[in-house]
Amino acid sequence: MENKHVGGLIIGIAVIMAIIVFIFNSAMKTIVSNSCTEGPTCPMWGTIATQTWLSISITGIVLLIGIAIMFTKPKEKVVIKTIKEKKKKIDISGLEKNEKEAMEIIQKENGAMFQNALMEKLGIGKVGITRLLDKLEAKQLIERKRRGMNNIVVLKN
User: Fold this and answer.
1) pTM above 0.85, yes or no
2) What does the pLDDT read at residue 73?
3) Average pLDDT for the chain
4) Is 94 in a helix, a strand, or coil?
5) Rounded distance, CA 5 to CA 69, Å?
6) What average pLDDT does range 110-127 have in this prediction?
7) Where exactly are the structural domains of the chain?
């Protein structure tokens, strides 16, 4: 929310508090006038005044806070723009057949996929996929990132 809205909300709360204080004050005066037989020297009249001034003071402080918030500048918003890098085409001409096939599959999957999914698409076993990915990692074409019990194979930029 903007500061003006928050300040207005707090000022509204202060106004409601002031109305409640005055309603409470008039009710207390009625009760004291009916129950206090000593007249204006009754100690309850003094406590009503003290309670009323204390309540009005608290309401005034809330009102001042609302006004202060309403007229302060909001903090500047920081906008961070992310720049999408154009993915460069990776040269796979010097690779072996199964390496090329693996690279093409990873590229079709937007540059990242689970190792076990790649293994299924290539139709090779765990040892074979590990060796293949070790070669591709040594050539700095891919990177394996551990995610729980799985690896994600990611193309290097």
Assistant:
1) no
2) 76
3) 86
4) coil
5) 9
6) 91
7) 3-71, 97-155
